[in-house]
Write a structure and sequence with these properties.
The complex is a heterodimer of chains A (282) and B (236). By secondary structure, chain A is an alpha+beta fold. In chain A, 72% of the residues lie in helices and 9% in strands. In chain A, strands 2-3-1-4 form a four-stranded antiparallel beta sheet. Chain B has 236 residues and is an alpha/beta fold. Chain B has one domain (2-218): 3-Layer(aba) Sandwich (Rossmann fold), CATH 3.40.50. The relative contact order of chain B is 0.20.
């Protein structure tokens, strides 16, 4: 292992420009990936905020007795998906409407708006299917005139999130592949530069694992350094956007560590491919 | 020890390189492989150190059959073989002793054991005083001695040499040949490919002669009163 590390360092010292180039290419690939991940992260967190406002309103017919409403609320409140149910009386509805739709405040008159049971769902149950199911159950009460839950925008919201996740995964995989190919190529150059050494190693009885080790260390180190550089660049980009445009969220320590680990993995894979190919040829 | 049994070797592009090769090199033996260029000498050596696998028949070296040998088994086998080439194959950026030590380092030899072994073997090939010289500072004969030292440092049971004197002048050739005979005298077998017939005629070692990929003469098989062999002049 010590020899392998020494050999890896020798490779680094012998062709510093190539090594730096390798690290920078990995960094840029991961940076592109990081930027996309940052966008995805911020979309997700924005969606979470919007999602918190998903609400089902079951409008209650005029003249329904408070007891009937209380019983229904007790029932609905005991559904496992439901976080809480609140009753909004016609008077409160008017106040809320005046507050939320200020420009129309003079249009509203007393008695114009019905009372409603406002149902909020627990986190994790705010998907269109659950929302719809709860809304349907709420509509089975005879005194419930109508149920509204913004069906369209709940579904749109979810489609957007699914799209963001898939696009993120696809682009991430593409960038990771590009990075593997790039580091594979830089390691390949290093392998070819040392093919004579490799031939002699094999001649005197070095195992494939032994021959591979310095290159794996090389790829790993380049991957980690590239990952750290990409992390720094992504952080800088995030800070710049936060300062000049909109407030953004940055990766937490766990995600950042995963990013660097991904760099290491890309470096290792690239090395493994190019050394493996070379060993197969000789 | 090295046993070829009905070995044939074909290459997809160049066709048949060897056919019906059967011979056995015994422990401690010195055998020459001779024949014109392209007769298959190097191919036989490559089969012996398992760089190539036979297309037909089998090659067994120290009990390991080439047919089923894994890459790992081949690597382990090579630690018990010493291999020397015409072009020395030294690492130009390392001193003589580092070149020799390299063979030990890549085979997991404990660090403390490396230095004494390297010095012993460099003394054996007569290069103790040039241990720190780089290949470019050494003559061809000296570079080949470094290569031989590297081949010897793992105490091989056989030394496989492919035209080891091919790039050397007469004096250096004699020196290297004498060194190989000295090594053989200590019990290490030597299998040496050469087209230097003067060298072959000067000794009474076994001669296996090849032509067009076949063995045309093997002194070990010839009757005792037969002439010294048909050894053809080299066509080169």
């Amino acid at each position: 292992m010590r020899l392998a590390t020494r050999e890896a360092l020798t490779g680094f010292r012998k062709s510093p420009l190539l090594s730096v180039l390798g690290i920078v290419t990995i960094a840029f690939s991961l940076f592109a990936f990081g930027l996309f991940a940052l966008v995805a992260l911020n979309i997700r967190s924005a969606l979470r905020t919007v999602e918190e406002r998903v609400e089902i309103r079951a409008f209650v017919a005029d003249g329904t007795s408070p007891e009937a409403i209380a019983t229904a609320m007790g029932d609905i409140g005991s559904f496992p998906e439901v976080l809480r149910v609140t009753y909004v009386s016609p008077e409160e509805a008017l106040v809320r409407a005046k507050r939320e739709l200020r420009e129309f405040s003079d249009v509203f008159e007393s008695g114009f708006l019905p009372g409603s049971m406002d149902i909020r769902l627990r986190p994790g149950f705010r998907d269109p299917t659950t929302v719809k199911a709860v809304a349907e159950r709420a509509s089975t009460y005879e005194f419930v005139d109508d149920v509204r839950y913004g069906q369209e925008w709940v579904e749109k919201l979810y489609r957007l999130r699914t799209l963001a996740t898939f696009a993120g995964l696809a682009l991430g995989a593409a960038f990771a592949l590009v990075a593997v190919i790039i580091i594979g190529a830089t390691i390949r150059t290093a392998v070819l530069a040392r093919s004579r050494e490799i031939a002699i190693m094999r001649l005197v009885g070095a195992t494939d694992g032994f021959v591979r080790m310095p290159f794996l260390i090389d790829g790993f180190v380049k991957g980690v350094l590239g990952g750290l550089l990409a992390l720094a660049m992504t952080w800088f980009a995030s800070e710049t956007i936060s300062r000049h445009m909109i407030r953004t969220e940055f990766f937490d320590a766990r995600i950042a560590a995963l990013g660097v680990l991904a760099g290491a993995l890309i470096g290792l894979l690239g090395s493994l491919f190019s050394v493996g190919r070379h060993l197969k040829e000789v | 020890m090295i046993r070829f049994q009905g070995v044939g070797k074909e290459y997809p592009r160049t066709g048949i390189a060897l056919s019906h090769i059967t011979f056995h090199v015994r422990k401690g033996e010195f055998a020459f492989l001779t024949g014109p260029s392209g007769s298959g000498k190097s191919t036989i050596l490559k089969l012996a150190y398992m760089e190539e696998k036979p297309s037909h028949g089998d090659v067994r070296v120290s009990g390991l059959s080439a047919r089923g040998a894994s890459r790992r088994e081949i690597a382990k086998l090579r630690r018990k073989l010493g291999i020397v080439f015409q072009d020395f194959r030294l690492l130009e950026d390392r001193s003589a002793e580092a070149n020799v030590a390299f063979a030990l380092e890549v085979t997991d030899t404990p660090k403390a054991a490396i230095q004494p072994k390297v010095h012993r073997v460099l003394a054996q090939v007569g290069l103790a005083s040039k241990a720190t010289s780089f290949p470019r500072e050494l003559s061809g004969g000296e570079q080949q001695r470094v290569a031989i030292a590297r081949a010897l440092v793992n105490d091989p049971f056989v030394l496989i040499a492919d035209e080891p004197t091919g790039n050397l002048d007469d004096r250096a050739t004699r020196g290297i040949f004498q060194l190989l005979r000295d090594i053989n005298a200590t019990g290490t077998a030597v299998l040496m490919a050469t087209h230097d017939l003067d060298l072959v005629r000067r000794t009474d070692h076994r001669v296996i002669e090849l032509n067009h990929g076949r063995i045309v003469y093997d002194s070990a098989e010839a009757p005792a009163d037969a002439p010294a062999g048909p050894i053809q002049g080299d066509t080169e």
